[in-house]
Amino acid sequence: MLLAAAGAFLPIGFALQMSWSRAVALEQQSLDNQAQRILKYTQGMLDQTVEVLRRLNAMRIDPCSPQHVRMMQTLSLQERSIDELAYVADGHVRCTSWGIPEDQARLEPPHMYLKSGAALRLDAVPVVSPGLRMVAVRHGDYSALIEPGRFTQLTPADGVQMALVLPGSGMLGSHNHPDLMLVAQALNGGKLDVEEDYLSAVARGDDIAVVLLEPASEALSSLRRERNLWLPMGGMTAVVMIGLVCWLSRRRLSLAGELATAVSRRELAVHYQPIIDLRSGRCVGAEALVRWQRPGGKQMRPDVFIAIAEENGILPRITAEVFRLVIRDMEELLAVDRGVHISVNLGASDMKDGEVLRVLERMLLHTSIEPRQIWLEATERGFMDVDTAGPVIAEARRLGHAVAIDDFGTGYSSLAYLQRLPLDSLKIDKTFVDAIGTDSATHKVTEHIIGMARSLNLLTVAEGIERQDQADYLKAREVDFGQGWLYGKPMPAAEFIKYYLRNVESTPPPQRMPGEGAPLAA
Ligand code: C2E
Ligand code: MG
Ligand code: MG
Asked: Of 345, 410, 465, which is best to mutate to test ligand 1, by the most ligand atoms within 8 angstroms of its C-beta?
């Protein structure tokens, strides 16, 4: 259910998040473009004005002569952005494009200088209409007046606030009443300090900076478009994910059902993999490994179906079935040769209450097998809860079984918890045997694990020995037993018995029998 919910919500959440961030990114891009366009327009206007003033300065003409005034008039008419041109000498306006003024006004000092060297004043008073305030740009002997509204003729999209800033000097113009605090923050490049998210764009020219502000909610129109694009994809992925989860869980549930039926119909089998005394080469027993041949002939790997059995509470029945098969297959051999043992795997759930031990005790009651001939092994996962596993191990040993920790080194084991558990032996996982003869870091751990087992007085069994050099290495370090393809793969009972008899003929009896080295209860 959780997986299905995650499968549904994650893609849809992702689609929503994606459409929002895409919408915001698109809106931001549009804002940046607008700011650049407006900057080009306003800075262009200033540059153009300075260019006209430069041309005038370069002209040789009698100041304030009728031709001079006409020339200024023509130029101010030609340049749509210039409203008035004035000739200035000794800080006074001598004549303008309107003619020679009666009152030769004194020029106010500039507010700032432009990059081009021209001076700029924001609130110059035109000679002909003193009620107005104009932007004055002065270069050399000339001054141009520009009506401030001209700078804001090019406006951004609806809902966008604009400020045309002359950094350090003031504002050339604005549109839509921008919040001046936010304008300052945007100019400083900081995060905007407002509850509602704003998008901002800043474009900087030689003299002017254009600041645009837009509430992020304005991105909503693009959001709708993006959502129409992303939501169907998210929805489709959600449907596929839910379908996949349903299919997987039905398959697992039906597999669990099939497995339960197979147990009832006694369709499971057990194969036996020889365990060898490394010093003498003698076979001292076998590990019982369950096999499930599904209808149709396909074998399913035990670690896969054991996990399903564990999840669905079928494992105790499988463990009991393995006990039954081991007794059926091996009773005769075990009765004849007391030095042989069979190791049976327990799952994590078997380690919880020890119920399997009572099942095994009842089964062994009417057989000639001695309990010490049945070893039990469980992975670290089974021992994780020390408080419940401890008493189960103690009970198993009281009944006479030896207990091993399987796949040692692959889980969470620590020396501290190993010391707290009354174990008999430790099975070194195949990964550490594989590392022998390599220069990987794991190789060093192999050495360490062997040392640790010895210091805890545990018997050691190495799993997955495939090559002679691995066997030699382990033998040199006094590892007690070995198991692996080098000696034999897991095989049906009859084959194992033949293997065993052949092996016994060609090897001396081991000096140390399984169970003797371990602190087994008598
Ligand atoms: P395990 O208990 O660690 O068993 C050893 C596994 O290593 C077996 O795989 C064995 O076939 C394989 N093996 C042994 N020697 C070699 C070797 O030299 N090379 C390679 N590549 N592999 C080797 P298998 O039979 O597939 O079993 C896998 C796991 O399934 C077992 O690991 C055990 O955890 C679980 N399992 C098997 N039978 C039972 C059972 O009856 N009950 C429970 N609870 N678990 C079982
Ligand atoms: Mg095992
Ligand atoms: Mg193992």
From this structure: 345
pLDDT tens across 279-329, in order? 999 999 999 999 998 877 788 899 999 999 999 999 999 999 999 999 999
Give the Cα separation of 52 and 48 in Å (integer).
6
> For residues 377 and 343, is the Cβ–Cβ distance under 8 A?
yes
Give the distance (Å) from ligand 1 centre to CA of residue 322.
Answer: 14
Q: Report whether 213 contacts 198 (CB < 8 A).
A: yes
The atom of ligand 1 lying closest to the CA of 289 is 38
Query: Cβ distance 315 to 259 under 8 Å?
Result: no
Judged by its nearest atom, the ligand closest to the C-alpha of residue 275 is 1
Stretch (H or E) spanning 273: strand 268-277
Cα–Cα nearest to 96, from 47, 45, 130, 131: 130
HEC secondary structure over 108-141: CCCCEECCCCCEEEEEECCCCCCCCCEEEEEECC
Cα 503 to middle of ligand 3, angstroms: 23
- In DSSP terms, which residues pair with 119 in a beta bridge? 113, 138
Burial of 466 (0-12, 13-18, 19+ CB in 10 A): middle
Closest CA to 133 of 146, 119, 150, 118: 146
Same CATH topology for 29-145 and 267-503: the answer is: no
Segment of 61-75, 240-254, 292-306, 410-424 carrying the highest mean pLDDT? 61-75
Domain 267-503 has CATH 3.30.70.2190: no
Task: List phi, psi (to 5°) of 22.
Answer: -65, -45
Q: Does the C-beta of 306 come closer than 6 Å to ligand 1?
A: yes
Domain ranges of the chain: 29-145, 161-219, 267-503
Structure tokens at 17: 């998040």
Q: Is the CB of 343 under 6 A from ligand 1?
A: no
> Which residue bears the tokens 């900087």?
204
pLDDT grade for 518, boundaries at 50, 70 and 90: very low
CATH class of the structural domain 29-145 = alpha beta
| Exposed/middle/buried for residue 234 (C-beta within 10 Å: 0-12, 13-18, 19+) | buried
Return the HEC string of 191-236: CCCCCCCEEEEEEECCCCEEEEEEEHHHHHHHHHHHHHHHHHHHHH
DSSP strand pairing (161-166 vs 209-215): antiparallel
pTM of the full predicted structure? 0.59
Contact between residue 345 and residue 288 where contact means Cβ atoms under 8 Å apart = yes
CB 314 within 8 A of CB 521: no
Could you tell me whether strands 341-346 and 374-379 are parallel, antiparallel, or unpaired per DSSP bridges?
parallel
What is the number of the ligand closest to the CA of 490? 1
